[in-house]
């Protein structure tokens, strides 16, 4: 059987499933070819070629893992990774609550070791250190890991693999708790990464993984959360199989609201013989009822996604024909999946605004829409503001209450196009 990389080197050969090795994969949703969603362009870069990569996740007919071929090298994405988790105060608070709950569940004491894979700038492990426990972070991005060490969180610069996992255990001992939050989708070698988790955790320890839930993604049509850095999209059923591939058994699951709907999986070494909780059985039953135990159950999603595109493009064309001005709000990475898939360029959306100064004066990748500071909207008084970060709907609807002063309306394209009143959020169309 060819390896995944060999299969990609030879496009004529089939893509193979990274979890079970099957060469029998079906299309899930074809979003065309787009640039990496975080590569915002400078004015000079507008004159240069811009590489694009297919954005076409498949579903494995054998194990049902929904996955993207690894066309983007995580080494390149992570080495210069500029995202510091601690910039978000709500995220740091989420991490603090997690540490409190995990301490109770795993029975952690002052001599317990907690290891986190992809520990970022220590946003989570700083709470472990503050509670007087031992902490070790494994973080691939050198500059982000350095920020963690400055906070007093011991951090190794490495990608987690079976070898680095074994090295961490040899140096620091077995971990009572291993955490891997918001990374399990970002690793192309899911089996090797899981073996790395198993290598680090004590034989009676716990592993906790937080990752976006495919069931929620599909229910709420969050297709814009599909981008090249997300290599796989898990149900509880496929997460269970992925964990088993590395010697871990899923024993409990919690549904958490992060990233529009995530699962927090609790796993333990397989040889402990711990069975799944009622919560695992309940979510598996919910996924089965939604059809996600079959390839056919994944089939309707592509049609729902193209309906969102049709509704949004129709709205923008009709607004342009009626002489209305539409501006964007936000320039998140996921907005670029939406804009590229829908083919929305500055003729349909003159500009967008964002609070991040790094993006000001830059352009959205692929669609080349200019990004301005938020004050631009107040000066221009557009008729409609198309909001791209739907996950912050309540917050942004309230923040943009003043758009009502000049009779402007807000437009949310996902899960289906809605025009709402700024401030109240009352739906006025349809
Ligand atoms: Zn498979």
TrEMBL record:
All residue ranges annotated as the Methyltransferase putative zinc binding domain in the record: 17-78
Keyword presence, Transferase: yes
Keywords noted in UniProt: Methyltransferase, Transferase
Amino-acid biosynthesis is among the record's keywords: no
Single GO MF annotation: methyltransferase activity
Record-linked InterPro entries: Methyltransf_Zn-bd_dom_put, Methyltransf_Zn-bd_dom_put_sf, MeTrfase_14, SAM-dependent_MTases_sf
Top-level taxon: Bacteria
Pfam families in the record: Methyltransf_13, Methyltransf_14, Methyltransf_23
Domain C-methyltransferase: 257-415
GO biological process: methylation
PANTHER family (alphabetical): BLL5978 PROTEIN (PTHR43861:SF5), TRANS-ACONITATE 2-METHYLTRANSFERASE-RELATED (PTHR43861)
Name this polypeptide is given: Methyltransferase family protein
Species in which this protein is naturally found: Actinomycetospora succinea
């Amino acid at each position: 059987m060819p390896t995944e990389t060999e299969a990609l080197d030879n496009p004529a050969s089939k893509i193979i499933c990274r979890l079970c090795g099957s060469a029998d994969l079906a299309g899930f949703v074809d979003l065309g070819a787009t640039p990496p969603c975080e590569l915002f362009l400078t004015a000079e870069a507008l004159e240069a070629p811009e590489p694009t990569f297919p954005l076409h996740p498949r579903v494995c007919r054998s194990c049902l893992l929904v996955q993207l071929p690894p066309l983007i090298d995580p080494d390149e994405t992570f080495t210069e990774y500029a995202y510091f988790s601690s910039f978000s105060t709500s995220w740091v608070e989420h991490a603090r609550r997690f540490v409190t709950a995990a301490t109770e569940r795993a029975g952690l004491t002052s001599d317990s070791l907690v290891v986190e894979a992809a520990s970022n700038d220590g946003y989570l492990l700083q709470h472990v250190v503050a509670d007087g426990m031992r902490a070790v972070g494994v973080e691939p991005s050198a500059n982000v890991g350095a920020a963690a060490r400055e906070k007093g969180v011991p951090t190794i610069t490495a990608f987690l693999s079976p070898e680095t996992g074994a090295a961490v255990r040899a140096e620091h001992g077995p971990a009572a708790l291993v955490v891997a939050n918001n990374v399990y989708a970002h690793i192309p070698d899911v089996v090797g990464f899981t073996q790395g988790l198993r290598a680090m955790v004590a034989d009676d320890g716990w592993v906790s993984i937080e990752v976006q839930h495919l069931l929620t993604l599909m229910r709420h049509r969050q297709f814009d959360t599909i981008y090249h850095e997300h290599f796989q999209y898990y149900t509880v059923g496929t997460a269970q199989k992925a964990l088993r591939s590395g010697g871990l058994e899923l024993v409990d699951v919690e549904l958490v609201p992060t990233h529009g709907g995530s699962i927090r999986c609790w796993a333990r070494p397989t040889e402990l013989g711990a069975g799944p909780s009622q919560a695992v059985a309940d979510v598996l039953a919910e996924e089965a009822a939604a059809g996600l135990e079959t390839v056919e159950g994944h089939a309707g999603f592509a049609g729902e996604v193209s309906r969102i595109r049709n509704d949004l493009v129709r709205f923008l064309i009709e607004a342009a024909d009626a002489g209305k001005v539409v501006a964007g709000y936000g320039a998140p990475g996921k907005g670029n999946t939406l804009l590229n898939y829908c083919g929305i360029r500055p003729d349909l959306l003159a500009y967008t605004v964002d609070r991040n100064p790094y993006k000001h004066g830059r352009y959205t990748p692929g669609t080349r829409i200019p990004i301005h500071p938020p004050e631009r909207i107040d000066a221009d008084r557009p008729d409609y503001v198309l909001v791209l970060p739907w996950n912050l709907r309540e917050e942004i609807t309230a923040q943009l209450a003043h758009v009502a002063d000049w009779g402007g309306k807000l437009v949310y394209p996902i899960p289906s196009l809605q025009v709402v009143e700024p401030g109240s959020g009352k739906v006025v169309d349809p």
